[in-house]
From TrEMBL:
Taxonomic classification: Bacteria, Bacillati, Actinomycetota, Actinomycetes, Pseudonocardiales
Domain HTH marR-type: 4-137
GO biological process entries: response to stress
Organism: Amycolatopsis rhizosphaerae
Entry superkingdom: Bacteria
Keyword check for Nuclease: no
Name the UniProt record assigns to this protein: Winged helix DNA-binding protein
Length: 150
């Protein structure tokens, strides 16, 4: 097996297991990982337009987040408001229920990050992060993640 192939499969394996762990921990909250990501983004950046949210999502990078938002609105977690600066646009905001749930999501993510930190042990993360950033910058999901840092 080529090293680059092994790298690709290792990334896939860790991503799948991380997503499985996250999904299991979000299940009691009634959320999917994609919905949790949207809530977290809104919690830190509201209000956001639908397009603005879509530009930051990694779970659904390059797609329209309407489906995710529709479910969050239907659950009473997100509200849609007409943008006062441009009535053609809609702004998304968390409802009080959405804000409370976003705090619970942040706690779930903190626990997951703690688990992953423990699994990594004393190994330095910087070299892996440098390599993954260099690869990810060529793809929409990596570009969405980079926009979050701006």
């Amino acid at each position: 097996m080529k090293q680059v192939e092994e790298l690709r499969y290792l990334i896939l394996a860790v991503q799948r297991e991380g997503n499985r762990l996250l999904a299991a921990r979000l299940r009691p909250l009634g959320l999917t990982p994609a919905q949790a990501e949207a809530l977290g983004l809104l919690a830190g950046r509201e209000p956001l337009s639908l397009n603005g949210l879509g530009e930051l999502l990694v779970c659904e990078s390059g797609t329209n987040p309407s489906r995710i938002v529709d479910r969050l609105v239907g659950a009473g977690l997100v509200s849609r408001e007409t943008d006062p600066g441009d009535r053609r646009h809609v702004l998304l905001r968390l409802t009080p229920e959405g804000r409370a749930l976003a705090r619970k999501v942040a706690a779930v993510e903190d626990k997951l990050h703690e688990t992953l930190t423990n699994l990594a042990g004393d190994r330095p993360l910087a070299p892996a992060l440098d390599l993954l950033r260099a690869l990810a910058e060529h793809f929409p999901a990596g570009q969405a993640l980079a926009r979050r840092k701006d």
